[in-house]
Amino acid sequence: MTFQQVYGYEPTVRYSAPGRVNLIGEHTDYNDGYVLPFAIDRRTVASIGQRDDRVLRVASAFDPSSVVELTLDELDPSRMHGWSAYVLGIAWALREQAGADLSDKRGFDVFIESDVPVGAGLSSSAAIECGVALAFNDLWELGLDRKALARVGQYSENHAVGAPTGIMDQSASLLGEQDAVVFLDCRTLDTAVVDLALEANGLEVLVIDTRVEHAHATGGYKARRESCERGARILGVEALRDVSVEDLPRAEELLDDETFRRVRHIVTEDQRVLDTVRTLREDGPRAIGSLLVASHESMRDDFEISVPELDLAVATAVEHGAVGARMTGGGFGGAAIALVDREARGAIADAVTSAFAAAGYREPTVFTVHAAQGARRD
User: Fold this and answer.
1) Contacts for 104 with CB less than 8 Å, ≥ 6 apart
2) How far from 258 is each of 23, 34, 99, 178, 248, CA to CA, in Å?
3) pLDDT digits (tens, 9 = 90+) for 120-133
4) Catalytically active residues, by annotation
5) Predicted TM-score (pTM) of this structure
6) What is the DSSP letter of 268?
């Protein structure tokens, strides 16, 4: 289905935004820490037509039979359900979080298409949010900058969708650049673009989608966030960002074992992000492999968000010559990434696929991604 087939006319404009891969820095974002994501060359496209009334209509290629409709005066999370909340929630958050005056605005017809895999930990949700946020900001002439739009996207996901995520995904989708990572301080929202230089070093990022689907709005993600908040409260800090590696022995004395391990992951992961940025700048991407592996081990053992499929993907990739590998995303399924030599890509992908077959797991989807430009008007 297309916009024209659903609505009966051609769209006025198209905006797109990418999914993201997080190179390193997992679950640190909502702890006011550091992250190092990059936008990928898999994008969500929002085709938009201007209306003469105050109605927002939303449809998508993945559910073309369902057209969801609300007026701008009816925007409220209680009226938003399913995937359409990722679109409608942005209009609501622009008003509620950014203070946009929508009282004189006209509505839109919106049609969503995407080649960002859903449920793989590549932030298909933020790709929708960021493309729509940039479009609404431009078309309604609201004048918000991209950092403000990232906050709008996070607010929508937290309060309209109900997923307690940090601001990393939206920042990567809006601020990403070609062959570079976005170094983001999630407390100050200060950003720096750091050159990845994969092309010059003959490297690629291989995504191994385990096809074990996860959902941020349920279960383990919420529990991990609560553990982090409990640890910060007991340690007397605003957020775990304020705890250093040197503070961990004291933390171990004060916290129960599970909470301490959750805290240890965040504290050491923040340090790994800083070390990765320094290493990329000084020594290049071939020198970051051990940091990627250490990150995965921490998520597997301390934060306990990996699954056997992810562990097998990482171990197999490293065993067959990857520079480094780790799970990426919120965990409990989704994808792993492996930093690989370009000429070894096929052999490593085959080895992982064979290992999954031998273990009796579903066949993974394996593909390469490249660091790409952030949200834009197409």
Assistant:
1) none
2) 26, 23, 40, 40, 14
3) 678 889 999 999 99
4) 169
5) 0.89
6) H
